[in-house]
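User: Could you check the structure of this?
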Amino acid sequence: MDIDLTAISKAMPDFKNHEQAKNWFEEHFHDRFTFGSSDIIDGKKVFYYHLIEDPEVYQQYMESFAKEDRHNITDVHTFESYATVEISEDGGISLSL
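Assistant: Sure, the predicted C-alpha cells are below.
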C-alpha cells in the first residue's frame, strides 16, 4: 500500500470533530490505521494515529520498544513504513511522513 498524502488530503471531507475524522480513516484504511497517543496543545486535545504502509517493518519497529536494549534502526525505511495523522478535537487534520 502506497501512502499518497496528497490524494488522501484531497479525498477527505471537512470533519466537524475528532470522532468523525477517526471514523473516516478507519472506514478507508481499516487495520492500517492505528492509535498512537494523544496530547493537549494550545488547550486543544490532539490525537496521533499511524497510517501504516509497510506492516512488517512497522511491527518490528513497534516491537523494538518492548525490548530493554537500544533501538538499532539502521534504515530510513523504518520511518517510511507509516505516516502520522494528527487529528484535533475539532476535526482538524495534519498528515506527515
